[in-house]
Protein 1
Amino acid sequence: EDQVTQSPEALRLQEGESSSLNCSYTVSGLRGLFWYRQDPGKGPEFLFTLYSAGEEKEKERLKATLTKKESFLHITAPKPEDSATYLCAVQGGTGGFKTIFGAGTRLFVKA
Amino acid sequence: SQTIHQWPATLVQPVGSPLSLECTVEGTSNPNLYWYRQAAGRGLQLLFYSVGIGQISSEVPQNLSASRPQDRQFILSSKKLLLSDSGFYLCACLKWNRQGSSYEQYFGPGTRLTVT
């Protein structure tokens, strides 16, 4: 069964303290792995799509990487405005364009 | 760029009443469309997705249904709401980005439904 597990559930950082969020997935024939940012009460905001092991994408302080079993979202020198829930999702297997989401990681960055 | 509209933004409905949530997409044609539900503090649960007009795949065999009467319109319905239907309902579209050669999924602002 296709599955996505994110860890940790919550992460508290000091401003400037770099860290990584993990997304482990089980899907046969990955079509794509997505990362999103979600602020309270709003719809998720698209960040990245990754397709193959070894692929990396960057946007400002965020860098996403992909292996055959997991993806990491690295946050370099975070600021308080990076506080949000970060969601990971996959498409693939027999599901075609069906998208399966993880439960998310709530990130808190303190000034 | 595409824009996703959802309405209403908030809705309070009694148990047993009907439901109709509408999603429309601008700026893209023939998109894959999705309905998700998010319970408080939880991840997104896929309810339905559609790859074209009249084509609906259901992931949740409950009292909800979806329809796609037009290319860029996706409707979520219920004949009789349950308390457990409360949540944050999100519409999304999957778009091919030619520049980045990748699929990107964009979400609407959501509808917060409270069933009382």
Note: Chain B has a mean pLDDT of 91.
Protein 2
Amino acid sequence: DIQMTQSPSLLSASVGDRVTLSCKASQNIYKYLNWYQQKLGEAPKLLIYYTNSLQTGIPSRFSGSGSGTDYTLTISSLQPEDVATYFCQQYNSWLTFGSGTKLEIK
Amino acid sequence: QIQLVQSGPELKKPGESVKISCKASGYTFTDYAMHWVKQAPGKGLKWMGWINTYTGKPTYADDFKGRFVFSLEASASTANLQISNLKNEDTATYFCARYYYDGYYHVRYFDFWGPGTMVTVSS
């Protein structure tokens, strides 16, 4: 099974900051990587698919990058409404979610 | 508009069974697979498996083989998750999610989610 490790588990940043979240796979997942945002009490929402494609309706401050085993979600200018937990998910072999990064406003 | 509507919260005792439903609307039900995802309180997301909505064939992740059954009521555009012999560790929110697939562009993702069904197992 492919394991997905996200870091940090908790991130505190200020409004307007550039924020980077990391997701590392236990083996090469060939860019088969999605990112989801989950706000408290809600279902997850797709942000980025296939490593760097922005889902329709998602603000352009969100972007994704990476290859091989290392992937990144970047928020270029943190907004208050971005407070949430972010999960990466690989689909190279079966499906696996990362453990999540909880993002807070400082 | 596309919607996945799930059944309401459940309170069960250990050893009992529960059936959760997920009714889809706004698209052709049999065009997309339906997946199930577990989220224990305060924890992350765990993929449980999926059901082919065209053939009815279920596929289970390793940790969900045995007590978990995915089924369909295709005429009602509904997918079901049944859990038997409930244990305390089954306490969680269970999400259904539609799976978008485009093999040509290597794209697959969960594009629509149900709101989740909370199952509490307690004696």
Note: Chain A has a mean pLDDT of 97.
